[in-house]
Design goal:
Blueprint (H helix, E strand, L loop, with lengths): L1 E2 L1 H15 L4 E7 H5 L14 E8 L3 H13 L7 H17 L6 E4 L13 H8 L3 E3 L17 E3 L8 E13 L15 H13 L18 H8 L5 H7 L18 H4 L3
Parallel strand pairs: 1-7
Antiparallel strand pairs: 2-3, 3-7, 4-7, 5-6
Length: 266
């Protein structure tokens, strides 16, 4: 169906109303904005004018969604508890806000059979205007020679204290030509600042310093820092020590925290 700007805004507002109280933010985008910067093998198989929405978690998500989720439901099976919580929150929002409507929901941790991610989280955040994706190519006269440097998103209000969690594609909603692509806020405009950011993210991500490249309005609580600082295989034991319902196993399949924001885990 064709959608006017008002309809697109209505969809976004419904999601915001449901998810913002749980510590999430939502940003609309056109599929074409996303596909335009990617190779054909990574593009979404939807028309360019289809509506998509990227979902971010803010520092508040841990206390407003995750801990209540654990209190009420505990963790099920071997999958990551944060992933379980995000999936519950997003799928509940879709079911309540868009009953009967087909919505393709893709989570940051999901892979295609080809082992490629179901969507590139940082690219989606950048083209939606939510956060600036700083990459090696954004630094002039690079000091790293041939070394590969992973890129990282910076949020204008939260710095690096956020994560990109999901992409919702509304394949039957068409975004009109009056919708203009927003530019993500360039929070780190200087070459020196970008070098500092990428080196902190690539070489010292465990010390959290890259997250403070801009002054954030809110950061993770100490409890949240403790959780994400704990190796994935030990987080179930940590949750049990906090008094949450024991899980089926204390030894889940490990997930790598080595580019934590890029994978959405923290």
């Amino acid at each position: 169906m064709a959608a006017s700007t008002a309809n697109v805004e209505g969809i976004t507002r419904l999601l915001e109303d449901y998810l913002s109280k749980l510590g999430f933010e939502v940003y609309p985008l056109k599929v074409g904005w996303y596909n335009a910067v990617l190779s054909p093998t990574l593009r979404l198989a939807y028309p360019d004018d289809s509506l998509a929405v990227v979902v971010l978690s803010t520092p508040a998500m841990f206390e407003q969604a995750f801990l209540p989720f654990m209190e009420e439901r505990g963790c099920q099976g071997l999958s990551d508890p944060i992933d379980q919580c995000v999936k519950h929150c997003v799928s509940s929002a879709v079911s309540k806000c868009f009953p009967g409507q087909e919505v393709d929901v893709r989570y940051d941790y999901e892979l295609l059979p080809s082992r490629k991610p179901k969507f590139l989280a940082q690219t989606a955040a950048h083209v939606s205007g939510a956060a600036f994706y700083y990459q090696q190519s954004d630094v002039t006269d690079q000091p790293w020679a041939e070394k590969k440097m992973f890129g990282v998103c910076v949020h204008p209000r939260f710095g690096g204290w956020f994560a990109i969690r999901a992409l919702l594609v509304f394949g039957d909603v068409t975004v009109g030509t009056e919708t203009v692509q927003p530019a993500p806020p360039d929070c780190v405009p200087s070459r020196e600042g970008r070098i500092q950011l990428l080196e902190a993210f690539n070489f010292h991500w465990q010390d959290w310093s890259y997250r403070d490249i801009v002054r954030p309005v809110q950061i993770y609580s100490q409890k949240q820092k403790d959780y994400f600082s704990t190796p994935p295989a030990q987080r179930f034991a940590l949750l049990k020590s906090w008094g949450f319902v024991p899980c089926d196993s204390d030894q889940p399949a490990e997930t790598s925290d080595a580019q934590s924001q890029a994978t959405g885990h923290g």
